[in-house]
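Board notes (copied after class):
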Amino acid sequence: MKLYKILSTAALGLSLGLTFASCADDNGSNPVLHMPDSFTLNTPALAGNAYDLKNTTDSITFTWSQPDYGGMPLVTNYKLQYVVSKDGSEVVTDADGKLKFADNAEVKEYDEGKTKCEYKLAPADVDLLLLRELGVKRADAVPSSVNVYYRLSAQTTSTSKVYSNIVKVTYLPYYQRMEIAEPVTWYLLGSCFGDGSWGDALITATMPLYLTGDSYDEDTGYGTVSWTGYLPAGSTFKLRGSLTDNWFTQIGQGAKFGSFTINDRGSANISPIENGIYNLTIDTKAVANGDANGISITKIDDVPAYGQLYLNGSFNNWGDGIALTPVNTMVGANNHDWYTRIHLPAATELKFQANNWGMEIGSKYAETPSCKSGYYGVGVKSGGGNISIKSEADYLVVVNDITGAFRFIKE
């Protein structure tokens, strides 16, 4: 243990820049500065059992004794550090029988420092931290209990950092949704989609399927996506689960049209035998589990095509509509998907329309379904209320004139 002789209070202030504070066991009578090897972190009240985080209402409180700087009440900055035990190897016992962090332990600390000898943690915040540390994204993946090991670091303006003892606290975590998952989607590309280039440029070469289940699992992102439109006989296409994974996730044709293979880079292109309007639907959870039965394609009755679709709304005082651009230029007049890029102010109300409002697509929702990337839904054709877009942003707007499905994707 190092000792430093202090000549006077004035010298202390000038040469070392040390300041004074107080904790329960302070003793300011000794003018010799000791550099302590450690200090005592007290075990929280319930640490001998377990904190049931869902049913714990009081804060989890850590208290400690100030490091012994020779009895001097120095202002000390404390940081609470922790290690979440994942495999039990993070904490070991040293030769003196004391706990210490193993070399492989991932030691983290809270950003907020304290100058008083108390640190309080809200149970809900502890629970969220555990879910993040353990990568829990589903309720059925929450462990029954988790051990967390804590210690404190202490440092003054003119002394090196010193660490407290380690204490173990056991928690019983519960599931909380940390954030809403983005919906899992798939992308169409091929000779009959976009410009037919098979490229990955969003909307001009490939288009996202629509979320047509009105909702999806906000914990996992899984749900139902679909597309309805015209496919020429002999055209070829595939689906990609990501535009950035070098075709690792894809859907191709199986033994014949109407059957599918998942993530087989050697699979054939999907190719319809007859011209017509088809509905393609994907259960994204089933596909993620490798179940090709979650994919279906069905030929349906022919529907009228529109020469032009427009977007009208409060953003331009319901004036002349903005002409939308056909997505699938390779099928000519048989296109049924339209898009535009537009900046929309907050609280925009709008509709899609064609034939001078002879056909319109409105809303069936009190509040338009949304996710982090924007808004989605299935509109009401020839009726419904206005589609409400709450957030101001630049949007890629895509709509299908057969089903009324739409997406407003933030850019």
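Comment from the instructor: The mean pLDDT is 90. The chain has three domains: 2-172, 180-302, 304-411.
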